[in-house]
Amino acid sequence: MTTRYSEFQASLAKRKFHSNYFLFSADACLLELAKQTFLRTVETASETQIAETMLDLDETSVDGLLHAAQSLSMFAPRQVIVVRGVMKLRETQGRRLAQYFADPNPQTIVVFLAGELDRDQRKKKIFEILKAGTHVVELAPLDADEAAQWLERRAHERGCSVEPSAVEFLLEVQGNDLGRLEQELEKALLFAGSQKQITLPMVEAVFGFAAGHTLSEFVDAVVGKNKAKALELVEEIFFTGRETGLAFWWFGQQLRQWLQFLELGGKVPTAEIGRRVGVFYPSAASRIEKQARGFSRQSLIQALQRLAAVDNKLKTSSVDTQFTMELLVHELTGSAHL
Question: CA 161, CA 158: separation in Å to the nearest integer?
Fold first, then answer.
């Protein structure tokens, strides 16, 4: 069962810490956020500096980890050891950890970190050992409200605010991937300069689209079969924007998502398809599924092939690059649906 980040924070606020933790998440940035929150909370609860040690089991043996965990810190009343690479351990190494879990050092907190764990990894003996001997926290991706609050908090920490429409745009184009959201926020902060508020035109500008129009408008025109509008936006968004490479990447991702929803529709629940393609909000997944129904599988495959041709022509500075892109749009917005 996954745990929301806010729930993890609330549990730490009680200041009743376990001897061993196992935190894992598909979002590396969220996992890092949880780790930093944990360290700050333990230090605050200890009312003094704690000894922090970072270990990677690719570089440190299990014996080295256990020696560190069992040792008494000379400089702090409590030590926290953060460990990566635990899922690579063999069963015999895992048994050594199990022995420590049965009688942990009360002065030490060991925190194991891992990324996303698939079904096969959860069947490993080391996972069973960790599940039995640690407090397991599988962090769920932030939902829309949590991601919005995180963005606003990050901006506030930098002495700036973000207007709601800018937050909505960032979540729409980047989802709830905190690493990507952080990157876009940094670009917007640089663009804002001395201004104290990040606006929608600012985030649109640094994302690579002209302030007058966005890629979302282009996608809406394609989905709505508004050929004239879609063709009108091709040059502005894909050939004269500040970061046209991002525009092509984003549109390619959209095409692949539509194709995957078509291919998996009826076989896999909508929310699960969304998770597989990186769309974690049920409302967004439902919207993309509905958009996909306006295209045939063959039309999307052909569009991806043409987009690859556009990419190749861009690299070779071909004179008919824009024409190929316009042909792609012409085909996608055709009235025929097979």
Answer: 9
d(CA 146, CA 336): 41
- pLDDT tens digits, residue range 108-117? 999 999 999 9
Taking every pair of Cα atoms in the chain, the longest distance, rounded to a whole number of angstroms, is 75
pLDDT tens-digit profile of 264-302? 988 888 888 887 877 766 777 888 899 999 999 999 999
Which of 52, 9, 202 is CA-nearest to residue 23? 9
How far apart (Å, rounded) are the C-alpha atoms in residues 292 and 127? 38
Q: Which domains, and CATH codes, for the chain? A: 2-139 (3.40.50.300), 144-207 (1.10.8.60), 215-332 (1.20.272.10)
CB atoms within 10 A of CB 166: 23
CA distances from 301 to 84, 129, 331, 334 (A): 40, 45, 12, 15
CA distances from 323 to 43, 85, 313 (A): 61, 49, 11
CA 245, CA 311: separation in Å to the nearest integer? 9
Q: What's the Cα-to-Cα distance from 47 to each of 19, 37, 110, 113, 323, rounded to whole Å?
A: 18, 15, 19, 25, 66
One-letter identity of residue 16: K
